[in-house]
Design a protein that fits this description.
- The protein is mainly alpha-helical.
- Helix content is 80%, strand content 0%.
- It has 10 helices and no strands.
């Protein structure tokens, strides 16, 4: 459902709740007010995105992918700040299936904008892993330093350290290969 329709429905229900309260039906008016607030909140937070994030936390990828596929045209169905998170979630799901194809989603998420620093760090850490898979050390190092800067709360510190260790192992493997 497009966001404009959600706003129209929310304001219509809000108007009905005010009318119910004016005519003395306070119980139904308050109930309609809560429903209008709920519909209004779905303008800012898409229910399919919320359910997909919940299933991702539960590590149920097929269900998360199912809810993300319900969003058919994300430019119309999501507001601008949610579009970056949509691409981030698609990239996370795609990275489990085909890691090299998920790069475009992470880059698109970063270009659309992510508001939380740890999400930016997660996207850049994933891009560093993809660059390491392509054996592009310079790009991987760049993404790792950017991820370290973005991870202000040190939520991904262990993963960044582990990735740097793997980057060092990449050099040793190349040296052994050339001998």
């Amino acid at each position: 459902m497009p966001n404009v329709v959600r706003l129209i429905i929310a304001f219509t229900i809000f108007g009905a709740s005010v009318a119910l309260m004016i005519f003395g039906f306070w119980g139904w008016g308050i109930l309609a007010l809560f429903i209008s607030i709920l519909v209004g909140v779905t303008y800012f937070f898409n229910e399919n995105m919320l359910l997909a994030q919940w299933y991702l936390r539960k590590d149920n990828m097929p269900k998360a992918e199912q809810f993300l596929k319900r969003i058919t045209n994300y430019e119309k169905q999501l507001i601008s700040f949610q579009q970056g998170y949509y691409n981030l979630l698609i990239g996370l799901i795609e990275s489990r299936k085909a890691p090299m194809q998920s790069e475009k989603y992470f880059k698109k998420a970063l270009s659309l904008g992510l508001h939380m620093d740890h999400n930016i760090a997660m996207a850049k850490l994933s891009l560093a892993g993809i660059a390491m898979g392509k054996r592009n050390k310079r790009e991987a190092q760049m993404y790792l330093t950017e991820a370290k800067k973005a991870d202000k709360n040190k939520l991904l510190a262990d993963q960044i350290k582990q990735m740097k260790d793997q980057l060092g192992m990449l050099d040793k493997q190349q040296q052994v290969r050339y001998r």
